[in-house]
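User: Teach me something about this protein's shape.
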Amino acid sequence: MKIKIQYGKKEFVKTFAGIVLVLFIIRIFFPSVINPLTKVEPAKPVPSDHGDQIMAHVIKADSLLEGRHVLPHDLKVTPTKEVHRIWSVSSYDKAFPDMNDVQLATAEKIGIPPLQNRAEAENSCGEHLVYVGISPYYLVKRLNNSISYLVPRAQLLLNHIGRTFIDSLMVKKIRPSKIIVTSLTRTEEDVRRLQRYNPNATDKSCHFRGTTFDISYSKYAAINDPDSAAFPQVRDDSLKWVLSEVLRDQRNLGLCYVKYEKKQGCFHITVR
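Assistant: First, the predicted structure itself:
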């Protein structure tokens, strides 16, 4: 005799409820049985925001800038016989592509608030800005629309670039010259004056922040050094090639952003 078993919707609900009840009891009294099955992967670290990345990079760049300046081997007592040629860079636009928005993000993070006028800049000197008008490694041209002040780490970078440029010329056996700085920190008053005849002057300028300076690539200041008088004096184009090598290396080290400015005849540089 066959027994017919009916299993309808009502019986299904009762079976499901029973299974849930059994699992609930096991979960309460024997949690170790369930935990391995429901193990949650540890949360991955949340990437830091852009500001934190900038500050982390500042620490690295500062350690390099504040380190001891090391002379190239061929300027030491026992130089090598290696020939140091001028190579330049393959493309100025490709080697120095850092647009204003990239430089500005860092400048706003590590620089000073914009200064209204030069009187306010004078009051900030010593507290947030340092004077950079005189150095054995570079020459500051007469400034009409900026002032000879930078934040301390930008001043370190400028000195480092100037000294490294001279080292590079000496290693290549070229009569040394100084780089010429054409623009430094600007006040809001300076930019308003500049905008009267320069449409490229912007209210979003990195020069507001004390982190940025311009170096001419078309003019240089010769150094009268008797020890290097035997070295040939090369054309400014050749000096530009050497300067481009120096700036490429500093940019690759992460010390600065660099933009090649065709119309202004300069490299626009912001410390990192």
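Now, about its shape. The first helix runs from residue 9 to 29. The longest strand covers residues 212-222. If you'd like, I can walk through any region in more detail.
User: That's plenty for now, thanks!
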